[in-house]
Amino acid sequence: MNVRSSSTSSSTIRQLVLASSSPRRQELVASLGLSLPVLILSSDADESTPQHWPPAMIVEQLGLRKARATCELLSSEAVNSSLILGADTIVVLDSKVLGKPVDKNDAIRTLTALEGREHEVYTGVAVIEPGTGRELVHHRMTRVTMKKLGDERIQRYVDSGEPLDKAGSYGIQGLGATIVERIDGCYFNVVGLPLSLLSDMLDEFGINVI
Ligand SMILES: Cc1cn([C@H]2C[C@H](O)[C@@H](COP(=O)(O)OP(=O)(O)OP(=O)(O)O)O2)c(=O)[nH]c1=O
């Protein structure tokens, strides 16, 4: 979705601002080895959404909200020379959105629902250029099948602490790799930032990853 467009590239971009507190997103952006500096600046964007929104709309709009909320925190000089990146990830099972668990019991319930079944992971990515008002928003969806786990294995995984800050209560990049049977689609989308999509979006703003 091209939300608003007033130019195709800018030579005045001096930094990328990552509007995220997620260590995974920070590592993934760092892995691109961009030639411009990356500033990490997360904000407190409202993450509530209307019940009827489909998953793609939820993640795209939340990515956009995060980017716009971080924009508010920048000085006017920085605003005019920054690209801001926001992202949001949700897990969807039987049309039900599963965000981050509120506690260990919630994580156990979520993993019990996911085990032995296929679910969808959606990540929305927003890149905005406040200096020109240009905003690009897209999403990717990846299908993930989780192994049948059993109560004891689920309990041990939750006790590891890994599920607690992650959508769907698992992290495919960590111990969660051992409970996933197969994936269909972009792996990095599951981790929280689809790098192939992101590089195409940065390209639109004149930032070439390679
Ligand atoms: C499914 C899955 C999710 N996750 C993580 C990515 C995100 O950090 C988190 C989804 O929550 P988000 O609300 O998308 O992100 P966040 O609150 O962690 O960070 P911010 O809003 O500041 O950018 O779940 C994994 O790390 N691995 C996985 O396999």
Q: In DSSP terms, counting alpha (H) and pi (I) runs of 4 or more, how many helices?
A: 7
CATH fold label: Maf protein
Distance between the termini: 24 Å
Rg for CA atoms: 18 Å
CATH architecture classification: Alpha-Beta Complex
State the main characteristics:
single chain, 210 residues, alpha+beta, Maf protein, eight-stranded mixed sheet, 7 helices, elongated, binds thymidine-5'-triphosphate, dTTP/UTP pyrophosphatase
SSE map:
Elements: E1 2-4, E2 15-18, H1 23-31, E3 38-40, H2 55-71, H3 76-79, E4 82-93, E5 96-98, H4 104-114, E6 118-129, E7 134-146, H5 151-159, E8 180-184, H6 187-191, H7 195-204
Parallel strand pairs: 2-3, 2-4
Antiparallel strand pairs: 1-7, 4-5, 4-6, 6-7, 7-8
Helix pairs in contact: 4-5
Thymidine-5'-triphosphate (TTP) binds near residues 66, 88 and 89.
Keywords: Cytoplasm, Hydrolase, Nucleotide metabolism
EC number: 3.6.1.9
GO biological process, one term: nucleotide metabolic process
